[in-house]
Amino acid sequence: MAISWLSALKAIPWGNVIEHAPNVLDKARDLLDRQRKPQPTEHEEFAPSNSKDPSTHEQLENRLVDALHQIRLLQRKNELQEQKLADLANFQEALQKDIKAQKRAVRWILFFSLVVVFANLVLWFLYVRNTGPLFH
Length: 136
Prior knowledge:
Elements: H1 2-11, H2 14-36, H3 54-131
């Protein structure tokens, strides 16, 4: 079972995932912004009543206080989620920069390795030419 997970992780094009992550983050922020906007909804239970019953009035006030408290909690939760998204976005940008730097370093290492291999072949060719054949 572990082998299938490893093969699945190897099959994922991580470069594309990292490349498209900023777009996904932007869409997630748009979704959060849309969710934050008040949406007009009609609730019959909150419709104003003409009764002046004090117990109903107190119950409504208590419900209002509870609802305001829940709204504050949700706003705080949204702020924390925004901060986490911003932190993840910054981390993702830093990760992209590091990956680009690593790719550049690998290219330079490959280039210098090829130069060293070519230089060794030239030196070997010159050595063989100057000393004669290896097998007489």
